[in-house]
Amino acid sequence: MTFLEAKRLLNNLKGGRAVTARFCLSGTPDPLLLYMKAAAAARDVALEIATLPFGTLRQHLLTTTEGKDEILLLCPWDLADALDWRTGGPAEPVNAEALEAEAARMAAALARRKAGALFYLAAPLPPVTTDPAGTAALASRLRALMEAAGAEVIEAGAFGLPLYLASGCPVASAALDRIAEKLIARFLEPEAEPKKILLTDLDNTLWKGLIGEDGLEALDFAPEGPGFRHHIYQMALKRLKAAGILLAAVSRNDRRDVEAALADGRMPIGASDMVAVAAGYGAKSAAIASLVKQLNLGLEAAVFVDDNPVEIAEVAAALPAVTGVLFPASEDDLPAFLDTLARLFRKREVTAEDKARTEMYRRMAETAPIEAGQGGDVTGFLKGLEMKLAIRDASTGDRTRAVQLINKTNQFNLNGRRFADEEVEALLARGGKLFTAKLDDKSGSHGEILACLIGADGVMQAIVLSCRVFQRRVEQAFMAWLAVQPFAPKTLNFAATDRNEPLRDFLEDPAFSQAADNSVRFDAAAFRAAHEADLALMAVSAP
Fold first, then answer.
1. Cα-flanking dihedrals φ and ψ of residue 511, to 5°?
2. Fewer CB within a 10 Å sphere, N or C end of the chain?
3. Class of domain 197-377
4. What three-state secondary structure class fits 531?
5. Secondary structure letter of residue 273 according to DSSP
6. Residue 225 — left, alpha, or beta (φ > 0 → left; ψ -120 to 50 → alpha)?
């Protein structure tokens, strides 16, 4: 925002909500005031700003305890006088420990005050000690003191020594509009209350891998290699739990698989760290709503972490009060992710009650069991995903991924049967068909997620779907497409397993019925008629 744009915003403000603030700065506030008022005007707020008499900031802070209407912008010299560039510094080198002790007393006074918005401009320190390394260490300690006092840190790049020496304003001319926006945003839009519960996905979030497809032994969470990111996340969760934050798992997996993984004992995070586990195949938003309600918490107290942006978006659409945080896809994004969690769950002190909170809530969950939540109409959400289902005839050519899918998928699996490649080849040589499907949406590609094997006799021998895309209606869309093909199956070679509950739920559709030989009949016409809407949810391309 330029000076003229700021003036124009103020001139165009008609009425607006009237707000009064006191701006506390040891230097000259004038260059900042215009931009602060303009930032407020952009929010339809008519801001009146009072300032302190020059040179009275420290006395004001030490003699007052209430400052909810204040915006405080402090610099290192507000914590220790000897650090002020405008004085030229003391004539003799000073002791860094003495300066830190002086700063600690001021920071403690700030922590006791109820300030509206507290900021610390981490300006460079003048060389007042004889040891450059000691000066750098002092700067870090001052920053830590102010963060502990609840200050939002403004990086050193916003400090302008020329303007400070010339007018007493510590903010660089080029940063005036940006810093004014930051000050006003914090003052007019105070930080929300700290969150109370973190609901975490498991596959490729708490650990690397898919437990329903890869198995427990294949999961990676080691403090090295591909598992490092997940190990660091688990250690962060341990710290949150120790600070009284509730942890819960929300996973689209068989509950027994999840419980086995959490009870395995090799991970930093285990079953005893979780207040509840919601495992099932419904919409995650429904599971979260059920879990939070039964723990007597509000949705606004919940944070949901998942590696899949589509899951984050689905929960956001259904439960906008829940804060969604995407698990990072690479180590480069890990620091920012962990910083986000730290801010959402900020806590200055940990009490004995905090440490006992998980056990207390676990007992509550045991008396009112958490349901996985099968509800949640996500049709509207799915329409906005821009899904593209590309069906491929893999009867000839490379079928490696298709056979892999059939042989490692457990949950949406027609019968749990494993096929050798030679068996598949023989079935295809007799006129059978093998199909795969790839799913893309606006978040990216999910790769090949479906495989279907049909014999020349019209019996479907296998159909599997990756758990990555459960609840997308892909299985309905694929079968609706298949229903009008000349090779549509007449029966399905179904067998119940202890893991294929999602497939059994799918077969509850009226178009499927039990045959005398225990196979499942498929009424293709009825299925197609019932699922035209599912087919319309995605753009289907096929051979």
1. -75, -10
2. C
3. alpha beta
4. coil
5. G
6. left
pTM above 0.70, yes or no: no
The single residue listed with the structure tokens 């225990």 is 518
- CATH code at 3-188: 3.40.50.1110
CATH fold, domain 380-541, is Aminopeptidase (3.40.630)
CA atoms 77, 82, 87, 93: torsion sign? negative
Residue from 422, 423, 424, 451 nearest 436 by CA = 451
Distances (CA, A) of 395 to 426, 439, 455: 11, 19, 11
pLDDT 10s digits, 382-420: 888 899 999 999 999 999 989 999 998 888 999 999 999
Does 3-188 match 197-377 in CATH topology? yes
Alpha-carbon distances, residue 436 vs 153, 422, 518, 542 (angstroms): 52, 18, 26, 10
272: CB partners within 8 A, 6+ apart: 358
Helix (H) / strand (E) element for 41: namely: helix 30-41
Domain-wise residue ranges, the chain = 3-188, 197-377, 380-541
**Mean pLDDT rounded to a whole number for the chain:** 89
**What is the spatial distance between Cα 21 and Cα 123, in angstroms, rounded to a whole number?**
24
Buried b (16+ CB within 10 A) or exposed e, 420-440: eeeebeebbeeebbbbbbbbb
